Amino acid sequence: MMKIKTVAALAAAFMLLGSSALYVPAFAAQGSGFNVKADEIEYDMTSGNGTAKGNVVILHDGGKATAAAAEFNSKTMSGKLTGGVVADKDDAHITCATFVMHNEDFVSAVGEASVTKEDKTLTAEQIDYHSDAEYAETIGSWGQLTSTDGSVLTAAQITYNGKTGLAEATGNVDIVSPPRNLTAKADKAIYDTNNDGKVELIGNATATQDGNTVSGNRLIMNNAGNAAAGQRAEAFGNIKIVYVPEKQPAQTEANTAAAGSEGTQTEAAAQDAAAETTGQVEAA
Q1: Are 237 and 205 in contact (CB under 8 A)?
Q2: Do 26 and 41 meet the contact criterion of CB atoms below 8 Å apart?
Q3: Pairwise CA distance, residues 194 & 165, whole Å
Q4: Which residue in 134, 226, 212 sits closest to 179, CA to CA?
Q5: Which H or E run contains 8?
Q6: Half-sphere exposure (CA, 13 Å, Cβ side) for 59?
Q7: Nearest-5° angle of CA 200, CA 95, CA 59?
Q8: Mean of the per-residue pLDDT values for the chain?
Q9: What is the helix (H) or strand (E) element at residue 69, kind and residue range?
Q10: Element (H, E) at 1
């Protein structure tokens, strides 16, 4: 095994010689495009095994990961990084306490893990991410998918396919979308982040928007991702709807006089009108 340490005197010598390696802040162990930089590196050229400590940077196939320490194998493209890990590849951004590189396409982020892609961030205790399939899966008892508009989906487990834009959540699903004044709950949810955000709620499904609630065995909400387009919902099985009518504007004196010229409203009719503006209509 070859042990390499950063030495100030040697660094000064590189500067005096004008070495082309001057841009490297520490020594690097390289193999098959797998590059490791750190303050201190121990590397076995035969096996490809190595360890790195202090300001670790690992570069491979357009991806970059930084950490406090790492164990790696430059031949299998595998390794384990620990301590304030930040990793980026393509448009995916990952942060966690421990980062495990199983191979060049499959990684696990462990410990307050988060994966951000475009305007969506997936958070959990552990996230497995397959970069070739752009597929992320939460591991553990909880997961959360947030959007930059403030919408939040929470569940026991969440999977997200970056290629199709489909997120599937299972177990105690809870959705909060402030831009749409929408909340929803179900046993399972399928969220299409494309097509203006179609959401399908399955099992004990309930959705509330602007004070109006619909529940059933299965709910489909269209335009969930487009607040300006207006919400459309379909319900199936044991449907229950609670609707709160909008308050009518107060009648002006001019309107009252005009109404009086057309006829006097009976007391019973006035009571019915008041019930429509202040009550709730419930249908099973």
Answers
A1: no
A2: yes
A3: 6
A4: 226
A5: helix 8-17
A6: 9
A7: 120
A8: 75
A9: strand 63-73
A10: none
Task: Please answer whether residues 161 and 145 qualify as being in contact, where contact means their C-beta atoms are separated by less than 8 angstroms.
Answer: no
| Sign, CA torsion 261/267/269/274 | positive
The continuous run of DSSP H or E covering 254 comes out as helix 253-262
174, with CB counted inside 10 A (0-12, 13-18, 19+), is middle
Residues 183, 226: Cα–Cα separation, whole Å: 15
- Phi and psi torsions of 54, nearest 5°: 80, 110
Q: Whole-angstrom Cα distance, residue 156 to residue 172? A: 6
Handedness of CA 163, 128, 124, 205 (dihedral sign): positive
Number of residues that make up the chain: 284
In the three-class reduction of DSSP (H, G, I as helix; E, B as strand; rest coil), residue 187 is classed as strand
Hey, is 62 helix, strand or coil?
coil
Contact call for residues 142 and 152 (beta carbons, < 8 A) = no
**Are the beta carbons of 189 and 196 closer than 8 angstroms?**
no
One-letter identity of residue 163: K
At 276 the pLDDT is 37
Q: What angle do CA 71, 72, 74 make, to 5 degrees?
A: 160
The answer to whether the predicted template modeling score (pTM) of the entire model surpasses 0.85 is no
Show the tokens assigned to 75: 């031949």
Q: What is the arithmetic mean of pLDDT over 235-242?
A: 61
